[in-house]
User: Fold this.
Amino acid sequence: MAAKKAATKKKAAASAKSSVAKKSSLAKKAAPKKPAPKKPTKPAPKYSRRKDFGGPIESYISMLDGERRAIAEQLRTIVRKAVPGAEEQLKWGMPVYSKDGLLCYFRAFGGHVSFGFYDHMDVLEDPERVLEGTGKGAHVKLRYPDDVNPQRFEKWVRAVAEKNARGS
Assistant:
């Protein structure tokens, strides 16, 4: 009886070995995996206008807090006084003023508001060198409402408006 049990065990072990061998040989013969089919590529998204494009500047200013709001309100008053009839609207996510071309913009950042000009360095007198930027455009960083210089800024905005009116 013990001999029969041992023989049965040997057969079972041999059978298990052969089934493992068959499985491994099947695995070796299996066809290589095909790469996943490529997903169809979507065309590049076309850029669209921001939802706030052309919107009222009041909405931009109302989102500002404390000193940044006070600075923005002062700048708006200065530009409106310097160039009555200048168009004001949100472009590129910030208030932009134009008349016969781009005049100026302001944009709030974490700790300051930038008041800047496009391609007008040749007409902006800046003996105190408060304007920053290289190239044709420049801006001044305003951290506190007292940093706003209404006389200087009005003069700059008028000079830019005159340049735009000349078409130069």
The two ends are 113 Å apart (CA to CA). The longest helix spans residues 2-29. The beta strands are 87-91, 94-98, 102-108, 113-117, 138-142. Residues 79 and 154 are 7 Å apart (CA to CA).
